[in-house]
Amino acid sequence: xxxxxxxxxxxxxxxxxxxxxxxxxxxxxxxxxxxxxxxxxxxxxxxxxxxxxxxxxxxxxxxxxxxxxxxxxxxx
Length: 76
What we know:
The chain has two helices and five strands; from the N terminus they run E-E-H-E-E-H-E.
């Protein structure tokens, strides 16, 4: 898997992560389905945003509307 990363204003970062080890455990607590192989991890300044782990961009956008505007994120 080539990890995808996006950054935005106010220290916001979103990364695609493979759900193994600790990522799997935290993602399950955040409600990511058990059959998901990857998730999006949303942070700001190193701290989790909202639930932190999201199964899709739609889930992330819905949960963090007003906090993260996906159109403001850029690759890298």
